[in-house]
Amino acid sequence: MEEYLMKVVLALALVTASAIVVSMTKKKKKKKKKNLPPGSLGFPVIGQTLGVVRAWRANRLEQWILQRIARYGPVSKLSLFCTPTVLVAGPAANKFMLFSGALRVMQPESLQRIIGKRSIIDLQGDDHRRVRGALVEFLKPDMLKLYVGRIDAQVRQHLQDKWHGCTTVTVLPLMKRLTFDIISDLLFGLEAGVVRDALAHDFELIVESVFAIPVNLPFTTFRRSLKASQRARPLLEGMMHDKKAKLRQGNTSPNNDLLTRLLSLTDDHGQQLLTDEEILDNGMLAMLAGFDATAVLMTFIVRQIGSDPAILAPMVQEHEEIARNKADGEPLTWEDLSKMKFTWRVAQETLRLVPPSFGIIRMALEDIDFDGYCIPKGWQVCCASSVTHMDPSIFHEPAKFDPSRFENQNHSSAPIPACSYIPFGSGPRICPAVEFTRIETLVTIHHLVRNFTWKLCCKENTFARDPLPSPLNGLPIELQHNPTSL
Q1: Using one digit for the tens of pLDDT, what is the confidence trace for 176-224?
Q2: I need a labelling partner for 220 at 20 to 30 A (CA). Which of 28, 51, 209, 324 fits?
Q3: What angle do CA 297, 303, 308 make, to 5 degrees?
Q4: Are 225 and 264 in contact (CB under 8 A)?
């Protein structure tokens, strides 16, 4: 009996051992199937975060990424901000990031806590399509044609108040204030005055903490920004309720501004299409996005013009020809903007060399195969999208400023490959304000080159990212006034 029991125990032990061996073999095989990208996750917790932050602050992040690509290839693993991450680069990577449904948009927690949880950055699926569709209703060209004159008036007033009579100005802060004034008018119908000035100050504070550590402690940048948001939101909320009442009474047009337009949109049942929270959160986002990005673009165009006579001459010729066909003081029109082709090519080339955003960050919603490697579920995916802007196989002599790259792209013998130039993104999450940015930029540059010439006070052609590109000292320039009239 004992011998029988011993045989049974031995048999069970052998079966158990066999099962363990089979299970371990399967696990090993399963692990082998997860072909992770090359690279290292670095030190525990911090990973490569310190190296990335140092490179970012020194404006060497692109070199840091290119060195990593040279070592590991266009797909590699690392750890950023306590999260395992896959770094990807190249046109195929850009397309993957912009169009894959297996990736979720990520944004800094600080931004979500400041502007709210119902902006198009956070929304997914049907909610994203619904809210984005509502925003596009206001930002599509047919609507924006109606606002060229109002933008023209804001630019003229700004130059009259802030530039005329000055011998030196600092461009970036002035451009930020100009874009804020335009947005305040067209998005919220907010007129110049004390309220707009206070709101502008609050949004300056909000911008500072977009990528700040979201720790609400005294004397921190995040605390200042959070308090600024807590002042701005009730103000915008009050304006929203006021416009809603005017719409009910028939005392306003839905086309007056973005806020009124969003409030006027209804679904199939006659109910307001967006919730008040969605309107407010996306209004905050629109104000924040427009406050900085377009101002940075126009500032770097001013810098290029001030150091490049070969670019300035054809630009002046283009705008003088437009002005010759208009009466003094007559505002610009949509048709005038369509004639500013060279100026917009200069803007496109500026965006190639100094893109507002360095890259895209997403999170894998499932295990994803990309370029022969597995990106595990829950990992971050970081795409250095602007690396393609400096790829010599895509852009000949990429360091050279050459607006002709964007001339006749539809008929060019060597068109720019898809997803290689994406300063505004692409696909379902392309920036909805591309046309709005174009109008602001063209109108502003038209009046600048006709009314002023300038010299750069700082000859160094450098800039830092904080988090958007910023030229040295905000780009101070010496002004000379041309004998033309606003």
Answers
A1: 999 999 999 988 888 889 999 999 999 888 888 777 778 888 888 889 9
A2: 51
A3: 125
A4: no
Would you tell me how many other CB atoms lie within 10 Å of the CB of residue 280? 23
Cβ 376 vs Cβ 367: under 8 Å? yes
What token pair was written down for 47?
């990973």
Neighbouring-strand partners of residue 32: none
pTM: 0.87
Q: What is the C-alpha separation between 146 and 422, in angstroms, rounded?
A: 27
Cα(479)–Cα(167) distance, integer angstroms? 5
Distance between CA atoms of residues 261 and 264, nearest Å: 5
State how far the Cα of 285 lies from the Cα of 111, in Å rounded to an integer: 9
Nearest to 424 by CA among 382, 389, 390, 471: 389
Query: Helices (H) and strands (E) in the chain — how many of each?
Result: 17, 12
Residue 25 makes CB contacts below 8 A (sequence gap 6+) with: none
Measured from the Cβ of residue 73, the count of other Cβ atoms closer than 10 Å reads: 16
Helix (H) or strand (E) holding 469: strand 469-471
What are the φ/ψ torsions at residue 271 (nearest 5 degrees)?
-90, 155
CA distance 478 to 393: 38
Residue with tokens 């006659």: 270
Output the CA–CA distances (angstroms, integers) from residue 189 to 179, 181, 184, in the order listed. 14, 10, 6
Alpha-carbon span 302 to 347, nearest angstrom: 10
Digit-coded pLDDT (tens) for 212-266: 778 888 888 889 999 999 999 999 999 999 999 999 898 888 888 888 989 999 8
- Residue 360 exposure: Cα atoms within 13 Å on the Cβ side: 32
Burial (CB count within 10 angstroms: exposed 0-12, middle 13-18, buried 19+), residue 414: exposed
370 vs 420: CA distance, rounded Å: 18
Joined together, the tokens standing for residue 442 give: 């063209």
3-class state of residue 44 by DSSP: coil
DSSP label of 146? G
- 132: its two tokens: 């984005």
- Which region, left, alpha or beta, applies to residue 109 given φ > 0 means left and ψ of -120 to 50 means alpha? alpha
* Distance in angstroms (rounded) separating the CA atoms of residues 210 and 290: 14
